[in-house]
Amino acid sequence: MKSEHGSYFVNRLYTFMKQENIILNRVAVLSGIRATTLNNIVNRGSAPRIDTVYKVCNGLGISVRDFFDFSPYNEVEK
């Protein structure tokens, strides 16, 4: 089953990939994770584990906070 949060992750990942002009396999190498792990997240739409998010952010040279600095994650609920 596809996760809405997984889709947010994938869309945000592609945003950073486009900015850096890199492909998914390069992100995997930079992050120190298997390319199949990222491929499964992208193609199956599952939400990544928190350690995977952390490794991807490190590989991209950004903080987890910067990665999730977009709606709905940066909005305050009232």
Give an overview of the whole structure:
The protein has 78 residues and is mostly helical. The protein has a single domain (4-67), classed as lambda repressor-like DNA-binding domains (434 Repressor (Amino-terminal Domain)), CATH 1.10.260.40. The chain contains 5 helices and no strands. The chain has helices spanning 4-20, 24-31, 35-44, 50-60, 64-67. Helix 2 (24-31) packs across helix 3 (35-44) and helix 2 packs across helix 4 (50-60). It starts with a helix and ends in an 11-residue tail after the last helix. The model has no long low-confidence stretch (mean pLDDT 87).
Helix and strand string, N-terminal first?
Answer: HHHHH
Structural class: mainly alpha
Oligomerization:
single chain
Based on Cα principal axes, name the global outline.
globular
Mean pLDDT rating: 87
**CATH homologous superfamily grouping:** lambda repressor-like DNA-binding domains
What is the terminal-to-terminal distance?
30 Å
